[in-house]
Amino acid sequence: MSAKKNYNQNKQTVAPAVIKVRGARQHNLRDLDLDIPLNQMTVITGPSGSGKSSLAFHTLYAEGQRRYVETFSPYVRQFLDRMDKPAVDRIDGIPPAIAIEQKNTIRTTRSTVGTLTELNDYLKILFPHLAKAYDPRTGEEISPDTSDSIVEWCNSTLTDDTTMVLFPAYLSADTPTSDILPLLNQQGYVRVWQKGEIIRTDDKKASLSGTKDLYVVQDRIKISKRNQNRLREALEKALEIGRGHCALLDNSNKPVRFSEHWINPKTGFTLRPPTASLFSFNSPVGACSSCRGFGKTIGTDLTKAIPDPSLSIKQGCVQPFTTSRGAECQRDLLRAARLSNIDINTPYSELESHERHWLLEGEQDNPEDAWANGEWYGIRGFFDWLESKSYKMHVRVFLSRYRAYTDCSVCQGTRLQPHALCFKIDGKTLPDLWRMPINELRNWFSKIQPNQSKFNSSLGHAITEITSRLHYLCEVGLTYLTLDRPANTLSGGEIERVNLTTCLGAALTNTLFVLDEPTVGLHHRDVEQLINVMHDLRDKGNTVVVVEHEESVMRSTDHIIDLGPAAGEQGGNIVAEVSGRQAQQKTITKKFPDSKTLPFLSGKVRIEPPKSRRSGKHYLEITGASQNNISNLDIVLPLGIINCLTGVSGSGKSTLAYDIIYLNLAKQLDLAATDEAATIKSLNGAEHISTVELIDQSPLTRTPRSTPAVHSGAFDTIRQLFSATPDATTQNLTPGYFSFNSGSGRCQRCLGNGYEKVEMQFLSDLYITCPECEGKRYTTNALKIHYRGKNIAEILAMTITEAVEMATSIETSSKEQRLLKKITTTLQPLIDVGLGYLRLGQPLNTLSGGESQRLKLCKLLANSSKSDSRLLILDEPTTGLHFVDIQNLLKVFHRLTEVGHTLLVIEHNLDVIRTADHIIDLGPGPGKDGGKIVFTGTPEKILSKKTETAKALRSAPIAKKTTQGHTSINSSNYSIQISGAREHNLKNISVDIPRDELVVVTGLSGSGKSTLAFDIVFAEGQRRFLDSMSPYARQFAGQLEKPDVDRIIGLPPTVAIEQRVSRGGGKSTTGTITEIYHFLRLLYAKLGIQHCPKSGEPVVSQTPEAIKKQIKILHKKNKNLLVLAPLIRARKGYHTDVAAAAAKKGIKELLVDGSLTETADFQPLKRYQPHDIFAVCQSVDQALILGKGNCNAIPYSQATNYQSQILSFNTARVSAVTGKSFEEPDPHHFSFNSHRGWCPECRGYGTVAASFGRSIKPDQFNSELEAEIQEELIHSKLKTEGSSLPCPSCNGTRLREESRHVLIHGYPIHAINQLSVLNAIEALGKWAFHGRENIIARDILPEIIQRLHFLNHVGLGYLQLDRSADTLSGGESQRIRLAAQLGSNLRGVLYVLDEPTIGLHPRDNIKLLDTLESLKNRGNSLLVVEHDDETISRANTLIELGPGAGTEGGQIISSKLQKPNIATEYHRRPLPKSTSKNGWLRVNGCSANNLKRIDARIPLGRLTVFTGVSGCGKSSLMRGCLNKAASSKNDTKNIAYKSIKGFGNIKHCFEVDQTPIGKTSRSCPATYVKIFDTIRQLFAQLPDARVRGYTASRFSFNNTDGQCPECKGNGRIKLEMDFLPTTWIPCEACHEMRYNQPTLDVRYSGKNIGEVLKMSIREATEFFSSQPKLHRTLKLLNDTGLGYLQLGQPSPTVSGGEAQRIKLVSELTKGRKTVRKGAGQKNHLYLIEEPSIGLHQQDVDKLIVVLHRLVDEGHTVVVIEHHTAIMAQADYIIDIGPEAGEKGGKIVTQGTPEHVAKSKTSRTAPFLRQQLQNQ
């Protein structure tokens, strides 16, 4: 690797060292401005509800994740977690963010601890290297033989003996026995061995006894040191020809067989070779075929048949046998047990394991045989017999009781194929390792000593990663977990810590990690280790933000942000910002007096234990409890006190509290429970409790309809008070009227929610204050009713404290007083637990977990009575609670016990443990080391014990270890370190790629550049980030495979900006591919106003309440306002019937054509004129009824001028003029890809065929999709032919009529879409919205304008948004994608770019590099695959791969850039005279796309280059004019040009583009250039082939005779299995050779047809040097820089540039057949677009040679090119410009390169001049 520092010697750190947050207003945040230091650990703390999560998750994480996810494709984004855009003014310098939360959303059992932590991935790599294989039947070791191992055996067994090396003869079944010996003799083999006899092949008298046991003698050799090489060569050849099998004759003349395959020669048992896929249950290769890798199937669970293991066989432990149906089985069991010496009086739980197996499974494998022989058939046999009777309904019902997910009977729950279980390391299979606890597995791995002969860097890295990840799991206190533990069974705290170790293992850097209380569920002894883990994450170059209340974490952090001072509306402010060390200073509280945290951290305040402890009066006693790691446990639980259940993580606390205590009590008390209770012997004392309840921090509700007032019951009383007011009594209003959930007094628009939900499609939904009730939830009438001066909405807006104060201050009548006292009683407990700040109407779904928990407890307090004694089980109630919140919670605990309840609290918090009356400590360790009660008693007594809890309680409250203020990270973190990269052709390379720099990777085409940059760096960076996201999101993002690399560290999140040949279909536009049009569609759907296409009037729907409110406002302004109901609009007739009908409905006056007329005086109107008739109504309600949802208003004075002054209101979307109804606007209505939006005539293309008969009728096809595909093909052809016209129905706008009449500020959407980027910026910049509309437009409009600005920034301001994507140049497409990345505004990201200068003019190239420089200066890294000299010169570091291409590349070499010297070999060809008739091709009046009717001329028989800035019109001239002219020849009239001349001199025109050469793996370079036919004919002419009767077709992998029957000639086999991704694996039958063995036996020069296809073109050129026909084409391919491609390489893997050069060679070979230079000879015209794409300078030199060769043969070659070296080689240049788009399309200058270089107006001239000077 060579580093260039000529452009930027020193590493710049332009990006800020902090994340700058300005104006954060999310939820209750108070417009916060703060800086969060990068690469440090920050703790955000504060009281529950103070805004911690709002800042950490809903602001920081939401923005960091949202920006990075924006870099993904729109398809993937729809499945990723859709984060709301936070309410914040600005966030600068934020890296991509990953949240590690206490949420376990995993549902699939495929996800395990092993898969989450990637330990399974490393183990499946380890096993193929270290595991030994064993025959499952004999236990014998199986290992494949190699030539070296066989030589070693010979040296130890046959030293100095003479032996024969044999290989088995594989012959066709139809080969006559008499022909075998002559055939072998022709191939040079002299001897064969059969049945102990040596037979000579040249002996005419010899004969064979069939082909069985026939071996061919490869060599006869003496085993000695001298002959070692000869022996090895003979063995290698024998193994090759013997298809992996060979043999040696021992001293007894018997063959000793050897095999390269995994086979036991004694038994014939064959194993599948060990690969990583074989050891993965998520791959079809390794997954058990029965359970598909789940490990479980639905079947009979035999354990359900023994519900009470404490019973013996005699007592009836087998429950089905105690019924009448099973009575006979019980007798059989007792008899068989006596015969087998099984004690029938021993409880089942105490039976030996083999005795239990006997009971369950029986005495034989076949239960029927056992029953017939009078033996025990097992419980399974009983159920198998019942299964045979399952056609009976009652049997099916009976069996359903015993159905469950049970271990798969095939794999025994291991999930893997049987073959995978034959491989073991130190006697352990892979599932054995999965089932070991983490701490045991870690110890086991520490003892692994790999055999040095097998050890390599990959194995070393795998072992390092495994031990590292196991260490991290132990560090975070998860030693008790096993790798096969399903992820969906983990608790929130466990899943968070597992994900934390996953992120550490992923070794991401430059990432923002946001953690949610990682200490939850963690015992105090493990907290320090967890802190070290978080420090490790920080020290890898990441920013760690932790929401936390744990003292030790806060003291060990770099930075603390304390929010408060209280919760809810009283919080949201930063009350302190200090370091962890400063927080412990005694004087710090004076500086930050509002902080509730610092007094506790500094030691000034602490939670004091109670002065006395309660003792239980009654007890709950459980004996013989067993579940999980708890076995035969007895527990005594005192009642009426606070019990604290504690112990180390994983000791069994949740099992004891839930499975044993809760579920068994629920069972005894007849409470509903979904899970089955744990097994116990007895339960006593349940009579002392009325019920048992689980109280957690789960949300009380997920909707906003429940509030503190509703939940506490106070709202019922409040509504009673309002219904008793005089105004309510007068109107007969009941309490139900004042319900915002169902009452008629609620707002009808928002249905009492107070807000409207606006669905924003691909943006987060908006919740906007209801414009009708303004968020008050009620109608105007309901709000007029007051109680004590306040309406119902004002009461709900009061805090609980204010409501209680108001209720206690009122003195009134006894009934009212009773209601007020009831309110006080229900609300006072909320104040007592510190929730007085909540508002009565605050939605409960906005409360924090701690607030929800306390609210649940308050309800218990309010409803408690001495006779109601409950057992309340709380699982870690202090989760998310601040010190102050814990104080309040403990007060609630004491009050609950005072009213007679019993509390069982699972807790690690030391303050809660100290406060408890009674402690139950489980341990001593986690997992199987736990499950025992190590202490019971008071907190004072435990201090003298040696348990882990006692140690924590004795320790000082202040942790000794504090942070020193972390400010920098290790310098090694400034680079991406890659070790052992072997992907594709990389040669196990190791390289350091500096971060925060512009790094260029260059090298020959095919040298491995893209493999390093994309297949390794990008794929691994994105894979690691995706693996940190939700499993649900990952399945749609595409599972990126792990590249073949040992290790990558220091890798930040990555974004790829690749070449894309595809530019979308005929409906793709600039607007759609930039997603600007998607945002426009959303904006118009939400804010656009529908207008009637006929009348032009707006069509808007409103509720009656809203209409009344608006008319009321109008009435205040104009007292003589007429309220009208439209009866007739623009209809002809007398209309006397209309007037009569109106009179019957009480209408006295009509407005007829602007004149007020009494209904009684109505006269017939003029019949043949259109008329308007309105009824003058007394109320809005009457008008809406008569107008059928429509009404109007107009001042009396303006009645005569009603057409321009009348105001319309509508409750339905119906045009008042035409009566036509309109749908609510939807984004689909503006999509020309949807039938709901496209114009029905052109179906969204905007064009139709110039001639009729070419249109599509969907009903002609089987499906809409089929019609669309055919439609796309027709429109593509029409565009190519230039025979399409703008659609007459939509005038090219593509949309239906209704969609074209939805307006915003007077603009329809198609008008905006037809603007250029610059004009759209100007137009949209003037748009302003207010109120509700402003909230909706807040996120959409800035997004549109920002994207437009970025397009302009990269020089694309001239593009129209409706410009068809397939007309964009390569340079324009590339810059569009780059503009999208600029918009993400991220820092810390690694951008990987694939030749971004492709298609760019040198002038535009400099602009692009400036753009890349700005990306770098934001704190990002750039890794660019590039050959461009200017890019290389500006790189900070240059990495060059080589020295060759393909197999000859893949190594890092020193840079040796060479300038071309082609100029010395080729001289400029003279141009024909300008007046020559036959010397030029002339195309006059060219007007395709942006061409300005230019006249172009191209010299015949010369090399012409079109140049100009990107988008100037080069492709339009070549493809739109020149190609069409060459195709038509005699047709001088065309839309694209006026006239043509000289094309009669052209025989054929070949356009060589970059479209793929094939779409399936059956197409390859050899087939495309037609040399494979010649190769097959060559093989068919070989003697061996002729003897066998093989023709050329036999050697086609598409022919059934020759192809491999297993893979059908693909070389790979497709494995498909339900629930698993489709997998392609190498065909084991042909070993990827594609052919069957008889075909492969035919060899040409030692190579079979399969090996020839695997040759590189460079190798094949030399191999076929004696075959002129093949050699000529192969040499052409090699000369164009394609020597590294394989002959049989699948076409889909060939790049666009490679495909173009293959096509060029194909056309060369076609054209050469008829080339004759001379007068009057017609030759060819070659049109080539940017052939230098993807080429190294050396390959460009080769390309120039080929282009000159074409011209020398008499052809005319026209090339579009930006490469100055090719420009300089041209005979003639046409420079188009001067700028792009509408500012281009003119010929700036034309002539020889020297002439063009002198131009002062050409944008190309300066760069061409420099190139000519350097040559």
A few lines on this structure:
The protein is of the alpha+beta class and 1815 residues long. The strands form 18 sheets. A 6-stranded mixed sheet has the order 5-17-18-3-19-20, sandwiched between helices.
Could you characterize the architecture of this molecule?
- The protein has 62 helices and 67 strands.
- The relative contact order is 0.07.
- The two termini are 27 Å apart.
- The chain has 1815 residues and is an alpha+beta fold.
- α15 packs antiparallel against α16, α45 runs antiparallel to α46 and α57 runs antiparallel to α58.
- Strands 5-17-18-3-19-20 form a six-stranded mixed sheet, with helices on both faces. It has a six-stranded antiparallel sheet with strand order 10-9-11-8-12-13.
- Helices cover 33% and strands 18% of the residues.
- The N terminus is likely disordered.
Ranges where pLDDT stays below 50 over 5 or more residues in a row are 1-15, 956-965, 967-972, 1457-1464, 1713-1720
How would you describe the oligomerization state of the chains in this entry? Answer: single chain
Cα-based radius of gyration, to the nearest Å: 42 Å
- Helix coverage percent of residues? 25-40%
What topology, given as strand order, has the largest sheet?
Answer: 5-17-18-3-19-20
End-to-end distance: 27 Å
- How many separate helices? 62
Shape: globular
* Percent strand: 15-25%
Q: What profile does the largest beta sheet have?
A: 6 strands, mixed
Helix- and strand-based class? Answer: alpha+beta
- Write down how many β-strands occur, each being a DSSP E stretch of 2 or more residues: 67
Mean pLDDT: 83
